[in-house]
Structure formats: C-alpha cells, structure tokens
From TrEMBL:
InterPro entries, alphabetized: GST_Omega/GSH
Full protein name: Uncharacterized protein
Signal sequence extent: none
Native source organism of the sequence: Hericium alpestre
GO molecular function, one term: glutathione transferase activity
Cellular component GO terms held in the UniProt record: cytoplasm
Annotated region (Disordered), positions in chain: 1-26
Length: 57
C-alpha cells in the first residue's frame, strides 16, 4: 500500500514570510475580534449566522 499524497501547491512558501530584525516571526493580529451578542456590533438573529468548524491544526 502506498502512502497517501496531498496537494501542497496552495501552501505558503515559508522562505517568503516577513521576519523581524532578530529573525523571529510575528503573527498578524486575528481579524475575528467581535462577538455575536445582544446590543453588540453583530446582534443575534435567527438563520443569520453559520458556524463552520474544522478539526485541523
């Protein structure tokens, strides 16, 4: 049985990542900072939102 293969053509080239002067990598801040809450920027509303879950790392 052969080992499974996967398409990695869409993965980012790590050699092109922006590094800090000391060589460390600083992750960009997450874009997801708001919550669905009553009185908030995104009020709860039936059938408005969908939750997608991935068990990937």
């Amino acid at each position: 049985m052969s080992a499974p293969t996967r398409d990695v053509t869409g993965q980012t080239d790590i050699s092109k990542m922006q590094l800090e002067p000391d060589g460390s990598f600083k992750r960009a801040p997450s874009a997801f900072r708001n919550q669905v809450e009553k009185g908030g920027k995104f009020p709860p509303e039936k059938d408005r939102y969908h939750l997608y879950v991935s068990y990937a790392c």
